[in-house]
Amino acid sequence: MKDKSYDTDLLKLIDFKKLPKHIAIIMDGNGRWAKRKFLPRYFGHQEGMKRVIDIVSASSKLGIDCLTLYAFSTENWKRPEEEIESLMKILVSYIRKELEKLVENNVKLNIIGDISNFPTLARTEVERAIFETENNTGMNLNIALNYGGRDEIIYGIKNLLNDYKLGKINIDNLNSEIFSNYLYTKGQPDPDLLIRPSGELRISNFMLYQIAYTEFWFSDVLWPDFSEDKLYEAIIDFQKRNRRFGGL
Ligand code: IPE
Ligand code: IPE
Ligand code: MG
């Protein structure tokens, strides 16, 4: 059973003046969670979706400006068709279940990645959610779908070359700040804190351009067991770090 008083204790340790503006999470470990319980992987993804609901709500309550959740990578197409199908179903059910709450909580949904090849139903539901949250001014929620860091850089270069062809950009003036506006995260700050549960110590093609100075926080807990407490722990740890950005 979760001890709610523990939440409150951890919350008290958070310095609300020094919150990370942008938190990114690699939501990993759903399959292993299910396996440990002798359940099909699908159950792990379903439980993982519940954690999405909890963490979106906790982050928005804390006052985080931007939350990015890695839900499906460009490499995840290598999985069996039936697993991909179940992930698409879960995506649709997440939106149907949560859209109203996102609107109510002033959360603006944004997709990073290319969903043009997603099944029609998943795509239409996602587009509906983007449309209905378009004018929200609270937390930006980026869901990374068919997302890969390398793909995003190439997408950025293609966009940039288009503008170059149209005479909209002078290559001599190009710098990292201008380039970042050609990426999916256009206009958003780079992640301050990247969280990866499940015990894997790797990036798995996530936000390669944006994580230049991001603080990493790893945990062995599997995503379906991730809780608000874990989020608070990560933030408290983050706030103890000395970020130098190459300076002294
Ligand atoms: C994360 O959990 C969800 C996706 C990548 C879609 P996994 O499905 O990767 O779970 P593990 O890593 O096999 O435990
Ligand atoms: C990363 O997890 C992608 C998502 C969480 C969506 P994976 O499970 O796909 O990563 P690897 O294969 O362990 O690197
Ligand atoms: Mg995994």
Automatic annotation (TrEMBL):
<dbReference type="Pfam" id="PF01255">
    <property type="entry name" value="Prenyltransf"/>
</dbReference>
<feature type="binding site">
    <location>
        <position position="33"/>
    </location>
    <ligand>
        <name>substrate</name>
    </ligand>
</feature>
<keyword id="KW-0808">Transferase</keyword>
<keyword id="KW-0479">Metal-binding</keyword>
<feature type="binding site">
    <location>
        <position position="77"/>
    </location>
    <ligand>
        <name>substrate</name>
    </ligand>
</feature>
<feature type="active site" description="Proton acceptor">
    <location>
        <position position="76"/>
    </location>
</feature>
<dbReference type="GO" id="GO:0016094">
    <property type="term" value="P:polyprenol biosynthetic process"/>
</dbReference>
<comment type="subunit">
    <text>Homodimer.</text>
</comment>
<feature type="binding site">
    <location>
        <begin position="202"/>
        <end position="204"/>
    </location>
    <ligand>
        <name>substrate</name>
    </ligand>
</feature>
<feature type="binding site">
    <location>
        <position position="41"/>
    </location>
    <ligand>
        <name>substrate</name>
    </ligand>
</feature>
<feature type="binding site">
    <location>
        <position position="28"/>
    </location>
    <ligand>
        <name>Mg(2+)</name>
    </ligand>
</feature>
<protein>
    <recommendedName>
        <fullName>Isoprenyl transferase</fullName>
        <ecNumber>2.5.1.-</ecNumber>
    </recommendedName>
</protein>
<dbReference type="GO" id="GO:0005829">
    <property type="term" value="C:cytosol"/>
</dbReference>
<feature type="binding site">
    <location>
        <position position="215"/>
    </location>
    <ligand>
        <name>Mg(2+)</name>
    </ligand>
</feature>
<feature type="binding site">
    <location>
        <begin position="73"/>
        <end position="75"/>
    </location>
    <ligand>
        <name>substrate</name>
    </ligand>
</feature>
<dbReference type="GO" id="GO:0008834">
    <property type="term" value="F:ditrans,polycis-undecaprenyl-diphosphate synthase [(2E,6E)-farnesyl-diphosphate specific] activity"/>
</dbReference>
<dbReference type="GO" id="GO:0030145">
    <property type="term" value="F:manganese ion binding"/>
</dbReference>
<dbReference type="GO" id="GO:0000287">
    <property type="term" value="F:magnesium ion binding"/>
</dbReference>
<feature type="binding site">
    <location>
        <position position="196"/>
    </location>
    <ligand>
        <name>substrate</name>
    </ligand>
</feature>
<feature type="binding site">
    <location>
        <position position="79"/>
    </location>
    <ligand>
        <name>substrate</name>
    </ligand>
</feature>
<keyword id="KW-0460">Magnesium</keyword>
<dbReference type="InterPro" id="IPR018520">
    <property type="entry name" value="UPP_synth-like_CS"/>
</dbReference>
<comment type="similarity">
    <text>Belongs to the UPP synthase family.</text>
</comment>
<feature type="binding site">
    <location>
        <begin position="29"/>
        <end position="32"/>
    </location>
    <ligand>
        <name>substrate</name>
    </ligand>
</feature>
<feature type="active site">
    <location>
        <position position="28"/>
    </location>
</feature>
<dbReference type="InterPro" id="IPR036424">
    <property type="entry name" value="UPP_synth-like_sf"/>
</dbReference>
<dbReference type="InterPro" id="IPR001441">
    <property type="entry name" value="UPP_synth-like"/>
</dbReference>
<feature type="binding site">
    <location>
        <position position="45"/>
    </location>
    <ligand>
        <name>substrate</name>
    </ligand>
</feature>
<comment type="function">
    <text>Catalyzes the condensation of isopentenyl diphosphate (IPP) with allylic pyrophosphates generating different type of terpenoids.</text>
</comment>
